[in-house]
Amino acid sequence: MKKSSVKKLTFFAVLSAVVLLLAVVVYDGVKKDASLEFTGYVMGSQVTGTFYGNNDDGIADEIISVMKKEEDEYISKYKESSEIYSLNKNGSAQFSEHTAQLISKSLAIAKDSGGAFDITVGALSALWNFDNYTQSVPDEALIADALQTCDYEQIKINGDVFTLGDGQQLDLGAVGKGVACDDALKVLENSEVDSAVISVGGTVLTYGENPDTDFWTVGIRSPEKDDSSVFMKLKISGTAFVSTSGSYEKYFERDGRLYHHILSTKTGYPVENGLISVTIIADSGLVADALSTACFALGPDKSYSLLEKYNADAVFVCGDGRVYITENYSDKYEAADGYECYIYEESEEYTAD
Amino acid sequence: MNVISMKNPKNIPLIKRSDIILIALVLVGTALLFCLSTFSAEGRTAVVTLDGEELTVINLQTAQDEVFTAGNVTVEVKDGKVSIIDSDCPDKTCVRTGELSKSGDASVCVPNRVSVEITGESADGVDIMAY
Prior knowledge:
The structure holds two protein chains of two kinds.
Chain A: H1 3-33, E1 35-42, E2 45-52, H2 57-75, H3 83-90, E3 92-94, H4 97-112, H5 122-128, H6 140-148, E4 156-158, E5 161-163, H7 176-189, E6 195-200, E7 203-207, E8 216-221, E9 230-236, E10 240-246, E11 251-254, E12 257-260, E13 275-282, H8 285-298, H9 304-309, E14 313-318, E15 322-326, E16 333-335, E17 340-344
Parallel strand pairs in A: 15-17
Antiparallel strand pairs in A: 1-2, 2-6, 3-5, 4-5, 6-7, 7-10, 8-9, 9-16, 10-13, 11-12, 13-14, 14-15
Chain B: H1 17-40, E1 45-50, E2 53-59, E3 66-70, E4 73-78, E5 81-87, H2 93-96, E6 106-109, E7 114-119, E8 128-130
């Protein structure tokens, strides 16, 4: 090769490198500019999210307002304007198609979980009152009375008219955030937004494809109390819902005992089975939320068929650092030091301590 | 420039010294830009929001120690870390959360609608947190 050709080649190689580097820098800038973050508050929870691709400020406002409508008009047990409030007050109510569907889906999961998840837990949850930080252990006799009313089979449905059993109160608190994520998905599907991640008080919706990689990295908060660090990272593909239930979320201590907000519909007291957190990955927010409560109460030994039925994945975290993760995610996670991870299989060998 | 001409009859050097200097300058400049854009993303900043609106953004690398209020919440910046040190809320989850220092760390006072979050290119590479 002639000397001049070598020089020419070198020159073009250098030129290409420069152009490539410039392109990377410019692309990096464009990529970052194309995302939009937002924060809001609904259902006593913080909503955060990021939109990628074609986005505009209007979408965040629309999502927040749809979630507020969900709370105010349909599912809140506190807002006098909601259908659930009306049912709880009058014992019977005619529901919109939307609320009727939410109740029917919730009742189906109640049945499939043998009542481990139960929306008729209202009287019991009102006694413990974790939403308002009462922080006292209710009287034993009152708990026993409230427990009598925790029975999803007592709800009577006649067309669009729903009637409660004696003393029953509905509480959709366990699925509210997931339902809000379902609402967000509907807004996103009718928008120009290519992809997004949204969290409603820790229940997560991943929407579309991550513009940077093949998957979304969802961090699961450490199940240790008062620790906001990431204990596990899950690689989630495309659109999915992730919900975590943990004993670290709402709790108080009395006389050396710890009382957390996931109540057993069998005992009337907080669930005590050695689990400290359960994360569910599902294709619906309502299902993810309901199953995280149900599987926390059931424990890993009794959750397998429920997860299978709803085609959902799970991460169970025990107080001693053992972690059980469904096979679909066995190669899609990273765990922090101090946790021993095993594949979750159908078994009754899960000793809870 | 004559570098594009296929023939080089006058035997003029294909790349002059000035060209090399120019290329070197462009290369160094580009490399600098690249580094800048990469490393600046790692600068940890604390974002404080009240009622969903951004209240203040603190660069934790350069921040002076300070204590300020955000609504009914008291926030402290100390040694490049930030924490909610007081709140009139009943549960005090935000205060118990303690010091935040890593990207992705967050403390939220839901009753007061105040959040403090460390942003910046997340060291953990997490897109969103489930809890």
